Amino acid sequence: MPPHNFRAGRVVLELLITLLIGLTPVVCGLLIMAWQVEKTLGESSQVAIEQTLYDVDSILDSLHNASNKVLNLAEFPCQKALPSLRTEVVMRPALRSLVLVRENRAFCSTVSGEYQLLVDPGSFFNQRLRLEPGNDVTPDSAILYYRLQEYPLGVLALTDGSTLQAVMQGIKARSTLVLQFGDAFLWSNGNVIEGDLPDHSEQHTRALSARYGYAVHGGYPTGFMWRELTSNALAILPSLLLVGVMTSAAVYWTLFRGRRLYQPGRSYG
């Protein structure tokens, strides 16, 4: 092989090695960034779900305690029980109204007073919870019913969907949070959807309430992860490229250029 061809091939090989070594910190930096983004989003979604469970359980605890406190009032006529019922509602911010039930018939409400309405226990998730998009009083506002039953007496405690919505929005999570009560889903925007699973194709996490059995879903819609990776990559890419260029220059000078400068010259006789 002619000497100039050999030297040209060696230069190309040196440049290729230098380029590959320089790209190593860039590629490693991007891989670490992608791992950190995925890990951070997953942890953020899990923390948001756990906080939602805690807050919603606290609301349901309040409904349960109120129901348990007034359960014995279902033995009395509505007019006699109504003042105590309304006092209990005033004392609990999460409580919208209370309804007394006797033999699966609602007969006294803090909103409507004395009335008659058949209560179907089978319509309640776990015999205790039912989520509806609204009722006759507020048709456009979601309502969660909590049912406490010691047959023949019972109590229905109602809370607004906006109360649960405020819990999900107050967490300030980047993930989409959805509450599930049986086949009904309450989204963080307050909408109630029957039977449609949340669009959580990325980092989907689901947790159940140990006390009440409802579920909290958290996750991100399609494309969210890619947008996060792109945004973070654009932010750190200039720094990674600078490190790569400096690494390439140092490697080239140390391995190739420096060796060439100190290489002893040939003598011809």
UniProtKB/TrEMBL annotation:
Q: Which chain regions cross the lipid bilayer?
A: 12-35, 234-256
Q: Which domain of life is it from?
A: Bacteria
Q: Please spell out the taxonomic lineage of the organism that makes this protein.
A: Bacteria, Pseudomonadati, Pseudomonadota, Gammaproteobacteria, Pseudomonadales
- Name the UniProt key words of this record, in alphabetical order: Membrane, Transmembrane, Transmembrane helix
Report the source organism. Answer: Pseudomonas brassicae
- List residues of the Putative cyclic diguanylate phosphodiesterase CSS motif-containing domain: 45-229
> What is the name of this protein?
Putative cyclic diguanylate phosphodiesterase CSS motif-containing domain-containing protein
